[in-house]
Amino acid sequence: MREQDANISGPRGAALASALLGRLFALADELLDRVLKQSETDGRQNDIYGDDRVVPVDDLHQSMQDSITFVVSNLGHAGPPDLAAPRRTGRRRAEQGAPLAAVQSSFQAGFGFIWDALVAAAHETGIVSDAELVGVASEVWMLTTLFTTELATAYRDALAEQVLHQDQERSALVQALLDGRIADTATVWEAADLLGLPYQGVFAVVAAEVPAVARPVLPCVETRLHVRGIGSAWQLLPEFQVGIVSLRSHRNMSALVEILRSGTVARVGVSPVYTGLERTSQALHLARIALASSRPDDPVVNVFDDAPLPVLVVSSPMTSYRITKTILGPLLDINPDERDMLLSTLATFFAFQGSMSEAAKHLFCHPNTVRHRLRRIERQTGRSLQDPRASAELFVALEALRRLPEPAVG
Q1: Structure confidence by residue, pLDDT tens digits, 74-85
Q2: Most buried of 111, 275, 334, 384 (most Cβ within 10 A)?
Q3: 2.140.10.10, 3.40.190.10, 3.30.310.50, 1.10.490.10: which CATH number matches 2-156?
Q4: pTM here?
Q5: Which positions ≥6 away from 383 have C-beta within 8 Å?
Q6: What is the pLDDT of residues 253-307, one digit of tens each?
């Protein structure tokens, strides 16, 4: 479309543009002065231009000259224009961190200035009539739209590249901390700065079980924590979504758990708090143990320090398997339906702090039925529930059966 409409103003437009070719630098000076004055008038709303600002004066002058040259050199000429200038300016402003809205506002003012210069040249030279200026105006509008659109596209592309690079850098740093590959203090300080986390403080590691490979289970968790004043950095691994959370205070642990519980449909483990980022890898290990301490089908948030016995059981699965086999003995070898019924009764008995009547209500049976089943367990295992030590051993074995991913038999 640009090739077909390029010469709307025709030779007259090109002749008018040529009248400005010798004044490009002076026009850029005048436009620069106008933009700087406008920036001062706008105050902090557009305070990006100047030697001590985001965009240096020399850089701004060059972009002003490029925009004037773009319009003047393409006015009345057929063929696609060279878009290198708007692309270059758009990328540079993104790299400088100048807000796109402020950049676009300056160029809109700049193109208004260019139009005024063309009108003044038309009146001074008589190259085009007022009626012919209508065609010139249409083409100037098209060129300015093309320039600003290309600038904005290049700006957004550069910004997307920056975000991707920052995400990759953050991800790599989080992974290095989780792996314990950052040891020296200076590097840990640098990593903390880039992640926006303090080097020293109150931290916790979160490990959430993902529903599928590399699929997050805690969407928008970083934003949700940030709203509560809690900083964090996250990494998505094949089996876990892992986060390093800066709690700032021990009191924020409850807020962290609340946010995690409201947003998860899978098991989540939270490490004990720790006070130096160099200890992150150890905290990850404890967070994963806390996660494993809940049953595979139970989507709960487990804090390491809140569940000492389940954590103890899953921290050494092979030992727990062996102990369970020793404690439960022949009970594990009976008919599976009968075994499950007896173990369910034992679990309910423990859940209601050894109350026969409450366990019976929950199991919808008579207390004597509960008593009879427990006696069968005692005979099978050789352990009396009246003996505190034997009762504790049965409880540990039951926790191992409930929480370890594989049965303790075979």
Answers
A1: 887 777 888 999
A2: 111
A3: 1.10.490.10
A4: 0.52
A5: 327, 390, 391, 393, 394
A6: 999 999 998 878 888 999 989 988 888 888 898 888 888 877 777 778 888 877 6
